[in-house]
Amino acid sequence: MNELVIDTEFITLGQALKMTDAISSGGMSKWFLHENDVYVNGEIDQRRGRKLRHGDVVNIPGCGRFVIVNKNGEI
């Protein structure tokens, strides 16, 4: 499982898609989530504004599984 390192309290699912190169621009997130099953903590989620925090696991088809890690150690 890969790590997505953040330096803020949270990122959105749309931002995570862009950080993992699943999409090339933020505007594609709505389309991508409509066409693909993306799992957050084991459940399908289509909300591009879903807040992802330290410890959340995101499974993106064709890209892999990622755990959100806050580099400041904040939870």
UniProtKB/TrEMBL annotation:
Signal peptide: none annotated. It holds the Pfam family S4_2. GO terms for molecular function: RNA binding. InterPro entries: RNA-bd_S4-rel_YaaA, S4_RNA-bd_sf. Keywords: RNA-binding. Coiled coil: none annotated. This is Ribosome-associated protein. The lineage of its organism: Bacteria, Bacillati, Bacillota, Bacilli, Bacillales.
